[in-house]
Amino acid sequence: MALTFAAATGLPCISYMVHADTALNPTDRITPMKAIFDFKSADEIARENKWCRKNPFGLLYEGAVSANEPGKVQVRPIAYDNNGIRIAANIYTPADWSADGGKIYPAVCVAHPNGGVKEQVAGLYAQKLAERGFITIAADASYQGGSGGEPRYLDLPSIRTEDIRRMADVIARFPGVDANRIGLLGICGGGGYAFNAAKTDKRFKAVATLSAFNTGLVRREGFLGTQKDTVAERLRAAAKQREAEAAGAPVAYTANMLDWPKEKGLALTQDLYRDGYEYYGLTHRHPRSTFSATVTGLLEMAIWDARDGASLIDQPLLMIAGDKADTLYLTQGMFNAATGTKDKELHLIPGAHHIETYWKPEYVSQIDAKLGTFFSNHLGSASLKTVSK
Fold first, then answer.
1. Which helix (H) or strand (E) holds 42?
2. At what angle do helices 121-131 and 361-379 cross, to 10 degrees?
3. 77-125, pLDDT tens digit by residue?
4. What integer pLDDT is reported at residue 20 of this predicted model?
C-alpha cells in the first residue's frame, strides 16, 4: 500500500497506519507486524499549531521546514501508543526519500531536553541529520509537550528511557528505514536518558549526546552540588506531598521560572538557567514547554544516576559539549563512566555554553558536521534495496 499526500501541503490525505503488507526491511521482504503509528491529518496539525504564526508545524528553530516540498527534507507529524499514552512525534525524511522508493536509509532517534519539546532543539538536529541523508524522529516525552498522559510534566528516568526505546520501535517500521542501522542522539536531559537507554538496548548502533545532563544527580545534589545538605529534607517533603495527593490533593509542581518577569530571569547568575530562561522563555518559547516537574518525582530521581551501569555501553559513543558550559562536569562524569566502549570521544565546542549549543549558528554548524560524520561513519548512508531470491 503506497502513501498518498496532498499535493499542496505534502501532508497525508487520510490518516494512514503502517500495516503488515508494507515492506520495510532491508531485503524488501514482508515482515508481519501490527499497526504501530498513524500520520496526523492536516486539520489536526493546524489545530495543534494555531498558536504559531511563523511555521505551520510549530517549529521554532532557524531554517525549519515550513512546507513539504518535493526534492527537499520533509517533516511528517505522527502519533503512536506507548503504554496507553498517545505520543506526538515528527519524522524527518531526506530530500530523495519516497514511500515506495528504491532506497533504504539509516535512522536516528532524537531525545529532547528536560522541559523541552520536539519543535525546539531536538527538531533542529533531527532536521540537520535528515539533510545529511538520515531518516530521523523527534518525539515529545510521555506526559509532556504534545503527548498525552496525566499528571502533566511527569519526568521520570524509567518513563523517559522507555520513550526512547519506543522511538526505535516506531522508526524501525517507517518506510525506507534499515532497522539494523539506527542511531541515537540525546540532548541535555535527553542525553542522560539516551545514555541510559543505550546501556541495554543494542538496537542503537551509535550513540551521541549534546550537552548531556545527569538529571538524577542534579535533582539529588543540586546543580553544581549546591543542595547536597538538603536532600533528606526535600525527600521528606516529596513523601509528604505524595501522601497528600493520595488523599486527593492536587498535584504539586516545582517552580516554573519561565513565568518570571524578564528582568528577573535574565539576572540569574548561572549560565544554564539564565540562558535557559532566554531560550525557553523568550526566543524559542513554546506553549507546551515548561521548567516545572512534579514534586513527587524526586522520590525516583534521587536514586537514579546516569553513570550507574555505564560500562554496559559498548557502542560507539560521541559526547559533545561546550567547553564553557557550567554543565560540562555532568558530561565528563558520564563519559568517564562509560568504560565498556572502545570507541568513545568527548568533543568540546570552543567558547560555547550549554544552551548556546541549541541555537547559536557558529556552534550549530560545528555540531551538525561532527554528528554527521559520526553517524555516517557508524551507520553508513542510504543504499539501494536488494531483493532476496
1. helix 42-48
2. 50
3. 999 999 999 999 999 999 999 988 789 999 999 999 999 999 999 999 9
4. 30
Could you tell me which residues come within 8 angstroms of residue 50 by beta carbon, excluding any fewer than 6 positions away? none
The domain limits of the chain are 37-214+307-384
Q: Tell me the residue type at 12.
A: P
Nine cell digits for residue 199: 546501556
Distance, CA of 73 to CA of 62 (rounded, Å): 15
Closest among 372, 376, 338, 367 to 192, alpha carbons compared:
338
Report d(CA 319, CA 198) in Å as an integer: 13
Nearest residue to 118 (alpha-carbon basis) of 36, 163, 60, 52: 60
Task: Identify the sign of the CA torsion 309, 162, 205, 210.
Answer: negative
Determine how many CB atoms are found less than 10 A away from the CB of residue 140: 24
Provide the residue count of the chain: 389
User: Using CA atoms, how far apart are residues 224 and 235, in angstroms rounded to an integer?
Assistant: 19
- Listed as ranges, residues in the chain with pLDDT below 70 are 1-35, 386-389
**8 Å CB contact between 321 and 267:** no
Picking from 202, 195, 178, 242, the residue whose alpha carbon sits closest to that of residue 26 is 178
Question: How many whole angstroms separate alpha carbon 82 and alpha carbon 380?
Answer: 29
Q: How far apart are the first and last CA of the chain?
A: 22
Domain 37-214+307-384 -> CATH class:
alpha beta
Strands 135-139 and 103-111: what pairing? parallel
Chain Cα centroid distance, residue 157 = 14
